[in-house]
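Final report, closing paragraph on structural work. Over the funding period we assembled a curated collection of sequence-structure pairs, and we close with a single example.
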Amino acid sequence: MLLYVTAGPKLAHVRYGSSYADAAGQTESASSSGFSAGWALGAGAAWAVDANWTIKTEYIYSQIAAAKGAGSYALTDGTIADVVHSSGALKENSVRVGLDYRFP
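Its predicted structure, as stored:
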């Protein structure tokens, strides 16, 4: 059995969008798309089934910086206001299971 810890930077392509309409008929929308940086930290274990086959499982927690979007706000008087939105940071918990074959 092999136990391991993994850590390092993470890069993700994040798309963010939102829209809103209130009771007065004013609407707001914003969107953004781009790459955001973050980090990842995890641990895992691998078991050798035989000389060529390995079964593994790992847990990874990662966090990506907040995505920001620019958009517009349409007021009932016909004017348009520019708005900036910011989403919360993307946090991900993942568990992975794998089966590996090593060619002799």
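Residues 2-101 form one domain. The mean pLDDT is 84. We thank the funder for supporting this effort.
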